[in-house]
Write a structure and sequence with these properties.
455 residues, mainly alpha, hpI Integrase, Chain A, 3 domains, three-stranded antiparallel beta sheet, 6 strands, 8% strand
Length: 455
């Protein structure tokens, strides 16, 4: 509810002046006229107090539920649209920025499918999703002025949205699952996207069970097969040590004013220490033990994942978080080889550190963004690789350098438990993800079997 000021209305000369209060509920403007200004002001005060107390407003009359007469029609069952915003509110405060993004994306994807069969023709699907993502779901967006097409789309959804008991019916659950498996253009969504959105929807239904909207999670009753998720790393992305050295030389020739040189050590951290990009850009000088000779050590304490600024509390594109899959205060220690020690020492000597101690910074001391290190890496590949290699998946993304680093450790014979600890994985996930990157094991296995058969 967004109350406006009460203002006088005057008719023709000699007519009595009236006072009109205008307010907005769910994108629709309401008004009520009074003969006296005190009546209008009191009514406006009541509206504001109800909104401040978080009271629900009746969508038909636009009035707080507490002001409706006792013989007013019983409030209808909560709709999916109303529930979805309550679910967002419950999750929002403790959610990471990328989780907030994924949360609203999932709700905006399935909500147009969870509508009554007899609903009028729907607005454009893209407009519906934009209305939900940019004006309805996120708490900071709800008071924004709504363009006409957005207000109309939300009004249609409010009227068409299924009541929660109807949402639980298998046909409607299947419709929601089918919606999240398709892109806006109707083509199949990536398996990883479907898995992520399904997890959000499942969690939303679990919250509905908690609130006694459902007796059990309705997804469990639907036989629906999601697209197969390719969890294993493609061995063709793995770059070898010699090729990596060539890339670290080539990157120094990329860009003006030493742009590539500034990022050389960042790529080296992803390869030789298998850091995630968000961990690398957050690396502090105080996290590094860099002796003059021999092996060094990184003590990782945080990450700086990148997301849209509208999903962070600070309004920045980066928000400090703990390490992935670990409690907030937990650290991860990664021994680093002399080659990386030397690269980091040289980088600090040449570029210094940011004001907060970050090793990697832009020319103005800012946080290095994914677009910057992604563009420079693309140019580096073009310079260091053959045309066939450039066209191949080989180290196509900076994140593939982490995959290559982990694969190098595994193929060097480092025990899986130690590799998992350094990489920040569980052993189960490590072996599941990197199974196809462990090369040269067949001959060793065959030899061991031969030796056993000869006994």
């Amino acid at each position: 509810m967004r109350p406006n000021k009460a203002g006088p209305r005057s008719g023709k000369p000699g007519k009595v002046i009236s006072y009109t209060v205008r307010w907005t509920v769910a994108g629709r403007e309401r008004s009520q006229t009074f003969q006296r200004s005190t009546q209008a002001k009191n009514f406006l005060s009541d509206l504001r107090q109800a909104a401040k107390n978080g009271e629900e407003f009746d969508l038909d009359s636009g009035l707080p539920l507490s002001t409706l007469p006792d013989d007013a029609p019983e409030k209808p069952a909560r709709t999916w649209l109303e529930f979805s915003r309550a679910y967002v509110d419950m999750k929002w405060q403790g959610a990471a920025p990328n989780s907030r993004d994924g949360l609203t994306e999932t709700i905006a994807t399935v909500s147009p499918a969870l509508v009554r069969e007899d609903a009028p023709e729907s607005p454009d699907l893209e407009v519906l999703r934009r209305a939900l993502r940019a004006y309805y779901l996120a708490p900071q967006d709800r008071e924004k002025p709504r363009p006409a097409e957005i207000a109309e789309a939300l009004y249609w959804l409010e009227k068409a949205s299924l009541d929660m008991p109807e949402v639980a019916k298998p046909a409607n659950v299947r419709a929601a699952l089918n919606a999240l498996s398709r892109r806006l253009d109707g083509k199949p969504a990536a398996a990883s996207t479907v898995a992520r959105k399904r997890a959000v929807l499942y969690n939303a239904f679990e919250y509905a069970v908690e609130l006694e909207e459902f007796d059990r999670n309705p997804i469990d009753r639907v036989k629906w097969t999601p697209p197969k998720l390719a969890e294993e790393v493609n061995w063709r992305v793995v770059i070898g040590p010699r090729q990596m050295r060539e890339c670290l030389t080539a990157v120094t020739y990329i860009g003006k004013r030493g742009r590539g040189r500034r990022l050389r050590a960042l790529y080296a951290c992803m390869y030789y220490a298998a850091l995630r990009p968000a961990e690398a850009v957050a690396l502090l000088k105080g996290d590094c033990h860099l002796p003059a000779t021999g092996w060094g050590q990184l003590v990782l304490t945080r990450s700086l994942p990148e997301t849209g600024s509208r999903w962070t509390d600070s309004g920045s594109t980066h928000e400090q978080r703990g390490l992935k899959l670990r409690p907030l205060a937990e650290v991860r220690t990664v021994p680093i080889p002399p080659v990386l020690v030397e690269v980091l020492r040289g980088h600090i000597a040449e570029f210094g550190t940011a004001a907060d101690g970050r090793i990697f910074q832009t020319e103005r001391g800012g946080i290095v963004g994914s677009t910057a290190y992604g563009d420079v890496w693309a140019a580096t590949r073009a310079l260091a690789f053959t045309p066939e290699q450039v066209a191949s998946p080989l180290a196509r993304r900076p994140y593939d350098l982490r995959h290559a680093g982990v694969s190098l450790w595994l193929n060097s014979g480092v025990p899986a438990t130690e590799v998992a600890e350094r990489a920040g994985h569980s052993v189960k996930v490590l072996l599941q993800v990197y199974a196809k990157c462990i090369l040269g094991q067949h001959d060793r296995a065959n030899q061991r079997i031969d030796d056993a058969l000869d006994d």
